[in-house]
Amino acid sequence: MVKTPSKSVTKKAAPKRKAAAKPKQASKKAVSTGGLKTPIYKADKSEMMDFYKEMLLIRRFEEKAGQLYGLGLIGGFCHLYIGQEAVVTGLQSAIAPGKDSVITGYRDHGHMLACGIHPNIVMAELTGRASGISKGKGGSMHMFSVEHGFYGGHGIVGAQVALGTGLAFAHKYKEDGGVCLAYFGDGASNQGQVYESFNMAELWQLPVIYVIENNQYAMGTSVNRSSAEDQLYRRGESFRIPGMQVDGMDVLAVRGAVEEALKDVRSGGGPVLMELKTYRYRGHSMSDPAKYRSRDEVQDVREKSDPIERLKAMLVKEGVKEEELKALDKQVRKTVSEAADFAEESPEPELPELYTDVLVEQY
Amino acid sequence: MAIELKMPALSPTMEEGSLAKWFVKEGDEVSSGDILAEIETDKATMEFEAVDEGVISKILIAEGTDDVPVGTVIAEMTGEDEDADSAPSPAPKADKEPEPTEAQEKPPEIMREAPAAPISRAEDPSIPEGTNMVSITVREALRDAMAEEMRKDENVFIMGEEVAEYQGAYKVTQGLLDEFGAKRVIDTPITEHGFAGIGAGAAMGGLNPVIEFMTFNFAMQAIDHIINSAAKTNYMSGGQMRCPIVFRGPNGAASRVGAQHSQNYGPWYASVPGLIVIAPYDAADAKGLLKAAIQSPDPVVFLENELLYGRSFEIPEIDDYTLPIGKARIMREGNDVTIVSYSIGVGLALEAADNLAGEGIDAEVIDLRTLRPLDSEAVLRSLAKTNRMVVAEEGWPTCSIASEIAALCMEHGFDDLDAPIMRVTNEDVPLPYAANLEKAALIDSDRIIEAVKKVCYK
User: With a threshold of 0.90, does the pTM exceed it?
Assistant: First the structure.
């Protein structure tokens, strides 16, 4: 398909280096999507139920993690994903497991669950137990599963963008047809290495989708207090990377948009930038005093745009019975409570584990 | 009087070069800006232009002459308005150093000459007797190591600034683009942070990248990925996600490039668990250890030295010559004192040892080769034999490898010590530019000799 650069790029008549066809003049409607379409995905009932279940699992899992943190069972930093569930659910429902790769920053629990990683071993990592996915040596911010195509879990803001570009480089080098989903937040979008990565990704036409999860606040600093260009989907323009802005509180909008992005990237079109407008209900981490925004603001989003409630309403409209949804909620709660029990009951790592995995080989 | 045209230096470290071609002949009139000749070294070619106007009166060095020392008069010319009796001409300007073509490039040649491989050098026990030896430069050894590993394994690729079409800022990657193509020999923009991260990500994704930093000074822009992304991944993932990557490039002081381009990062990286840090001295180690580094499943920081690139050493003709990581080597056997060193310091230590032999002090020289994991057994074994130790390091004294060796010997070899260990390092200052100050700041063999005498109470 032909990618149309966003309006301002087109105006300057800067032809995309890679585009064989002429860039189309972006229509008024297309401006906010940088020229790529963002159709709403037409899900059938069973798909919608799957999305609902996935989002619910992430929400309940994170609520439980918050409780365990309060009880002192989880230590250090713990960044919850509550409010942003539609982003990973929509995006990761569209990728090919075993072929594509996913990488993100420290707010990573939801991404892992959406990769199909068992909640037990994620929760056990949060509690620092031997049965945790990193044997208790990584913690909330440092979890990985090569088996599930999940490459972390990185604690340094912005680092995952260059690393994800490297994963995309490997996909292209190996010609395995894979695409990397590289997630980062509105805060990371101001890091220099993001733009170094954009430059090389476009220069080398790497198969990567940059996903900015714009939850409006980088810790306590709102986007418009930190970003000269706060329309973050435009951040790739000077690298000729098309951007699209998507309602990240609507799982069907997310899925619809990423399908277009994937189609474009898989066809060899190089990177695409997606800005997902979303919101986190909880603090930046568990130790956030939340003085930078009002209770009303949070409450307003919860009431009007909650991704789970939104989908629930659609399911009810589709004729799904309240009892069915309740049963599903019960099932999810059971899964999460089992994960919490597992995480609490698993032993801590044996002391000799302190010295393992520093290097792969003995020298 | 005739204007003398002298052999120009292409770089601050160049000592000699080839006069590849003359574009003028005797009797030709030339004006300022005309190209007179083409000068070559093993890594660069430069056109030599006329500064003055006049007539070429004599060509003194024929084209095709190799090893012409910098400053040699290669031709004479008569100035435009001068007759034979005119006053001496001003010093010719034609031998002025050319501007480097790029801000970050400093074509290297040897200036601070390390000693020629001394006769007293110990045989390398890992080389079978009767092995044929060939002489190659450290630069060629590094290139051969990469080429051999790239031939063996499709997943090995090299990425960095000017590694492909330019053939390497220091010509270490010369010829690799031709053999392996642009897919595997990749020029990057000037963007260290970015391409170090892309390399680390590619390694996590199953490839074996060799990332060249034009110098390790620029790797400070990328140090987060070397430490936080590459070194810690295996541990943080409980051993399931690896990062088999090599970060390589010149490290340490070069010559007259000032403080921001002259620094030894050995101690920095050697302090990080999860990294392998290698700093070879000679060509054989450069080759054998770089091959080992590329084969390693762990992330490796491979510290080369610009001043050693052009030096030739004997290297064994052995197929797939690979050395073990983490093993020091006795470069010279001795009984009275041990000098521990690595990288360019080994040459200085050997020079010191040869001089000390003349004064009746029999020094053992140990090349650490790998800085992490450190071969502490080799160090302690030598200490137990000689009971005295000097550590020679081209780098700062504070928190240095020398400090680490001293602590190691205190903790595990205290009873073997007959004298305090002495550190011989650079001065504890940013490296100055002025030639005399730079010389005063840098370690040399005289300082090693002085320290050895002190610990030997002589």
Answer: no
Residue tagged active-site, from B109, B261, B304, B351: B261
Q: How buried is residue A170: exposed, middle or buried, by Cβ count under 10 Å (0-12/13-18/19+)? A: buried
H/E segment holding residue A243: strand A243-247
Average pLDDT over every residue of B320-331: 97
> Cβ contact (<8 Å) for A135 and B238?
yes
What pLDDT, on the 0 to 100 scale, is given for residue B81? 56
The CATH number of the structural domain formed by B329-455 is: 3.40.50.920
Query: Count of domains in chain A?
Result: 1
β partners of residue B78: B55
B193 counts as catalytic: no
Q: B261 catalytic, yes or no? A: yes
What number of other Cβ atoms are within 10 A of residue B286's Cβ?
Answer: 31
Q: Which of B148, B192, B306, B364 is catalytic?
A: B192
The domain defined by B3-79 folds into OB fold (Dihydrolipoamide Acetyltransferase, E2P) (2.40.50)
- Cβ of B205 and A101 within 8 Å? yes
Taking 50 as the threshold, does the pLDDT of residue A2 lie above it?
no
Q: What is the number of alpha carbons within 13 Å of residue B131 lying toward its C-beta?
A: 16
Asked if B146 and B180 count as a contact pair (C-beta separation under 8 A), the reply is no
What is the complex's ipTM, to 2 decimals? 0.89
Please indicate if any CB of chain B lies within 8 Å of the CB of A56: no
Instruction: Please indicate whether, in this complex, the C-beta atoms of B198 and A156 are within 8 angstroms of each other.
Output: no
Q: Among A317, A248, A234, which residue's Cα sits nearest to residue A48?
A: A317
